[in-house]
Design goal:
Elements (H helix, E strand, L loop, with lengths): L5 E5 L5 E2 L15 E5 L14 H4 L22 H6 L9 E6 L5 H14 L4 E5 L4 H10 L7 E5 L3 H10 L4 E5 L16 H18 L2 E7 L10 H4 L4 E6 L6 E9 L7 E7 L2 E4 L3 H5 L10 E8 L2 E13 L7 E4 L3 H15 L6 E7 L11 H13 L7 E3 L2 E2 L5 E2 L4 H10 L4 E5 L6 H4 L3 E5 L2 H10 L4
Parallel strand pairs: 4-8, 4-9, 5-6, 5-7, 7-8, 13-17, 15-16, 17-20, 20-21
Antiparallel strand pairs: 1-2, 1-3, 9-10, 10-11, 11-12, 13-14, 14-16, 18-19
Helix pairs in contact: 5-6, 9-10, 10-13
The chain binds thymidine-5'-diphosphate and magnesium ion.
Magnesium ion (MG) binds next to helix 3.
């Protein structure tokens, strides 16, 4: 029987149970429930109003009052600012998650330096590295002259005291998992500590008008470890991603109370830190040389920007009884669907063959508009017939084998034209686009079978 006021919090997912169990009922992890005494109010929740006015009851407001857009702190790292919704909102809290080693500390140090050089009062508190290490890195990146205040500290109380003493516009805490509060028994990195530290810092941010960026490490399965519980306390959650072996890094908005969540920022990791990539399309195309059978260039949209990416497929005879399906950068469930449609609606027999699908450059594509590009790459490899060099592909595929139209056709075609493409394999609706009249040739397909026939016959009229 649980004590009064005691709850058991899962250290992996933050799920709460009222009695102890060996396995977390929420996420299924073993031995992760730890007893905690409940706080009187959830961390991050608003404090009850103490003013006399509110005590008498709740005063409702209307929606039609004039609002002022929040002023923003523009850091000067344009890719970062865009993902934040056009700069950092004062008093907001941002969680930046990512695998260890992906470059979170590097990115945020650069953001701090750029903001400080723009005149903002900036502090960078590292709980993982010594001041000398951070300074050496900044100097190596040529940022030694930026007026950023550095500290190495893990004691929450000292950090909070320092932030109360001095006013800052932007404070980076690297990382939230290293902080500990001496008022709690739990060890650093536990859900209890992470939640308490984040709650305290978020409250301080709101009160002082300081923008606080919290760095959080992500576990192998893609969850922000422990800090899952932090996600709902902060105003924005950004994840910093990158495939091992590729220099490209993508900052992706997962939640944003002050802007769109589907924005991405693209960076390239080099010897002197992260470089902003203003034109990602050029990056994700396989440069140089002919495109061979199995390659299709997808005209996609990431956030507000069009991005061209190459899909590469290989359909090969299987050496084993069970054919392999391997996919990098795309959803494997989606691949299974496209293969089933190719098989049953287009007469391509793929069932007994190995299928590999790869998105070039280490980008992860989630748009349904990529269906047709993946199907075109697969059909091109299966039929051993390359697509025209100057052809881009986009369109959604339904289970019935129809090719459905997708949004932002003009933007996709325009980006393709800008990069020297002159042809598109696309849904019928793309024929109406302004660009299709201006010399851009759209080979339309209403059924996936039409598209496959075009590829097989090399017919692009
Ligand atoms: P880091 O920012 O420390 O990662 P995180 O804080 O997410 O754990 O980045 C570490 C990696 O970045 C490390 O493998 C080295 C690489 N790196 C460069 O390639 N060039 C650079 O200029 C810097 C600073 C780091
Ligand atoms: Mg780090």
């Amino acid at each position: 029987m649980a004590r009064d006021g005691a709850v058991y919090t899962c250290q992996a997912c933050g799920g709460i149970s009222h009695k102890w169990a060996g396995q977390c009922p929420a996420c299924g992890a073993w031995n992760t429930l730890v007893e905690e005494v409940t706080a009187s109010r959830p961390p991050g929740a608003l404090a009850p109003a103490r003013s006399g006015k509110a005590r008498g009851g709740l005063a409702f407001e209307t929606l039609d009052l004039e609002t002022v857009a929040p002023p923003r702190l523009v850091t000067g790292i344009a890719e970062f600012d865009r993902v934040c919704g056009g700069g950092v909102v004062p008093g907001s809290a941002i969680l930046v998650g990512g695998d260890p080693g992906v470059g979170k500390s590097t990115l945020l140090l650069q953001v701090c330096a750029a903001a400080a050089l723009n005149g903002a009062r900036v502090a960078y508190v590292s709980g993982e590295e010594a001041v000398e290490q951070v300074r050496a890195r900044a100097q190596r990146m040529g940022l030694g002259h930026a007026p950023v205040k550095l500290a190495a500290e893990t004691a929450l109380r000292d950090i909070v005291d320092a932030l109360k003493r001095e006013t800052f516009d932007l404070v980076v805490i690297d990382s939230i998992q290293t902080l500990w509060s001496d008022q709690l028994e739990a060890g650093p990195g536990s859900v209890t500590q992470v939640r308490a530290a984040a709650g305290e810092l978020v409250r301080l941010a709101k009160k002082r008008g300081t923008a606080v960026v919290l760095v959080g490490h992500v576990t192998k399965d893609g969850q922000i470890a422990g800090p899952r519980v932090v996600e709902h306390m902060v105003d924005a959650v950004l994840s910093f991603e990158g495939e091992r072996g590729y220099p490209f890094r993508i900052l992706r908005g997962a939640k944003n109370r002050f802007g769109a969540t589907d924005e991405i920022g693209v960076f390239e990791m080099g010897d002197s830190g992260l470089r902003e990539v203003k034109n990602p399309s050029a990056l994700f195309l396989n440069e140089g040389g002919e495109r061979s059978a199995g390659a299709a260039v997808f005209a996609g949209i990431e956030g507000s920007r069009p991005v061209l990416v190459e899909f590469q497929a290989l359909v090969a005879p299987s050496a084993y009884g069970t054919p392999r399906r391997a996919v990098v950068g795309w959803d494997s469930g989606r691949l299974a669907m496209v293969l089933a449609v190719l098989e049953s609606r287009c007469g391509l027999s793929l069932g007994a063959r190995d299928v590999y699908l790869n998105v070039a450059g280490g980008l992860r594509i989630t748009e349904p508009a990529a269906d047709l590009a993946a199907a075109a790459a697969l059909a091109s490899s299966a039929l051993d017939q390359p697509l025209p060099q100057d052809c881009v592909v986009f369109g959604e595929i339904s289970l019935s084998g129809d090719v459905r139209s997708v949004g932002r056709t003009d933007a996709r075609l325009k980006e393709a034209a800008k990069l020297g493409f002159g042809r598109a394999l696309a849904p019928n609706a793309a024929k109406d686009s302004a660009l299709s009249e201006a010399g851009f040739s759209v080979a339309s397909a209403t059924r996936l079978a039409d598209a496959v026939r075009r590829i097989g016959d090399n017919d692009w009229r």
